[in-house]
Amino acid sequence: MALDHYVSQVHLRKFYSTKLGNRMYAIRKQDLKAFTPDAHSVCRLEEGNTNPFLKEARAIEEFLKTVEPCYNSAVDKLQNDTIDHDCVYVIAGFVAYVLTCSPAAMRQQAGPIKHMIEETARALDSKDNLPKVSAVLAERSVTELLDSGLFRVQVDPKYPQAIGTASIFSRINTFGNFKWEILVNTIENSPFFTSDFPVAVEKTPNIQIQNWIVPLAPNLAIRICPDCEYDHQQTDFSFTGFRRVIRHLKRQEVISINRLLVQCAETTVFFRDNHEWVPGFVKQFSGFQVNVRAMKRGHLHWFTHEIERVS
After folding, report:
1. In this structure, are residues 178 and 230 in contact, taking their beta carbons and an 8 Å threshold?
2. Number of folded domains in the chain?
3. Residue 216: domain span
C-alpha cells in the first residue's frame, strides 16, 4: 500500500537542521513530546491520496507531478524576486494540495457539508416533507432528534477530499490571481515554523475574508490576501491578476506568525533551530486548532475558519 505524504517532503526538507543532518526538530502538540524526524517518516497516510469517490482514484498524484519537482526552484524564485508563471503555479498548487488532502483540511471541510445536510433536513422537516422516525424513538421529528443529539450526521472525510481534488485547479486559479505578500524573516534566532498543516488562518477587518499565511522555508513565507471582488468563475492561468509586495518583517511580526502556525498545526510543529524558547512557545499555543464555523446573516449563510481553543 502506498504511503502518501499530505505535506510534501520537499517542503519539510527546507526545515532540516544543520545540527541534525537530514532531520528536523518536532514537538507534538497533544503531549509536547519532542523528537527529530526526517521528512519521509511524518505527514503520511496509507493510501492517503486514494479516493474512492473519484473516477481516477489516484488523480491527485498526477497533479503533484507538476508541483513537487519544481518546489525548490519556485521558492528560490520567490527569494530572489524572479517570480514567473511557473513559480506562482507551483506555490499555489502546494497550498491547494495541503488544503485538500491533509487530515486537518478534510476534517475542516467535512463541517460545512455536515451543516448543509442538517439545515436541509430541518427545512424539509419544517414543511412536513420527512416522515416521523420509528416508535423506538417516540416518533420524534428529525429536527427534534438533531436538537437532542440522538441523531448525528457523519461525513466521510474522503468526500470533501474528492470535492477538493476535483476543484483544485479552480483554487490554484484564484490563489494565483490574488495579492501575495512575500514575507522575509531575517531574525536569526526566530525562524519560521512549519507543521502538519502549514497554512495559518489570519483574520482581516472583513469577517468574510481571511488571509492564508504559508511558511515556505525558515526565512520565507507568503501571505495570500483574497480579493472579494475577484470573479471566481473567471479562468486565468496566466495569473494576470497576480501582484506581490515584499515585506521584511520585524521581530514582533515573526512572533505573531509563528503563534498562528502553532495554533493552526493539527498535531505536530516542525522547526529547524531548537532555541531554548521554542518548547515554551509551542506549549503556550498548543491548545488550539482550526475549525470551520457556519455564519448566518438573515437568509445568507457562509463559512469561516476559526482558530479555537480545544483544551
Report:
1. yes
2. 1
3. 3-309
